[in-house]
Amino acid sequence: MALAYDPLFITSDKSAMDVPSTPPPMMLTQDELKRIAAHKAVDFVESGMVLGLGTGSTAKHAVARIGELLRQGKLENIVGIPTSKKTQEQALSLGIPLSDLDAHPVIDLSIDGADEVDPHLNLVKGRGGSLLREKMIEGASKKFVVIVDESKMVKHIGGSKLALPVEIVPFCCKFTAEKLRELMEGYGCEAKLRLGGEKGKAFVTDNGNYIVDMYLEKDMGDLGAVSDAILRLPGVVEHGMFLDMASTVIVAGELGVKIKNKHSSCC
Ligand SMILES: O=C[C@H](O)[C@H](O)[C@H](O)COP(=O)(O)O
């Protein structure tokens, strides 16, 4: 059944977004909203581009769409740089030619989901465990388009009582988790080693590392200072705060699609 969704209701203007131009459409599922945001992002893709391919339940719709356009001959000469083994598998199954950052150190456009987005377009990512490769690839991108459903929009990242993931080396992981907890104690932090690996063991990232999920009770305030402090801890590989990296965030909600661009997004 066709969705009762008005694709023409797209705005990058806050005031316009606040006043819906169409009656509320029928309820869309979260997955339908994710797909709508993903397809809108793929409109930015042009033939000949080197593309960062994101990971997760939203990004998979973008990868599928890119595969579909290639198959239809509407896109040509695309090279994809996958941000995880899972995305690599999906892209290969769709016939998307793949490469890596060694061969393509500059990426034209990356498209990926996020766990949280604040009004300045700072992100939390990595609840799916792919934050390191994502940060490397998206950080090497001329344009980074983030795709989310409206449930991901928050006032302050990391303060939602959902996890801020930190990738750490497996060596003495409890020691590093405790150091993280101590560092973030002032924010009411609980630090948990992520499980979900074989036989209930630790979750292992594509890079052979572990993840500590930090649950914070308070907002972090100076995100840059917190980021630096986390990265200074020996044993930490990377964290899931993506500060000042997104060029554009595409938010799909019940009332339409909102496009937020860097430097014109705030408040
Ligand atoms: O590690 C996972 C990635 O950062 C994902 O992009 C993020 O967790 C958002 O995933 P989803 O689109 O499934 O909510």
From TrEMBL:
Transmembrane segments: none annotated. GO terms for cellular component: cytoplasm. It catalyses: aldehydo-D-ribose 5-phosphate = D-ribulose 5-phosphate. GO terms for molecular function: ribose-5-phosphate isomerase activity. GO terms for biological process: pentose-phosphate shunt, non-oxidative branch. Keywords: Acetylation, Isomerase, Phosphoprotein. Coiled coil: none annotated. Pathway: Carbohydrate degradation; pentose phosphate pathway; D-ribose 5-phosphate from D-ribulose 5-phosphate (non-oxidative stage): step 1/1. Its EC number is 5.3.1.6. It comes from the Eukaryota. The keyword Nucleotide-binding does not apply. Belongs to the ribose 5-phosphate isomerase family. PANTHER family: RIBOSE-5-PHOSPHATE ISOMERASE 2-RELATED, RIBOSE-5-PHOSPHATE ISOMERASE 3, CHLOROPLASTIC-RELATED. Catalyzes the reversible conversion of ribose-5-phosphate to ribulose 5-phosphate. HAMAP family: Rib_5P_isom_A (MF_00170). This is ribose-5-phosphate isomerase.
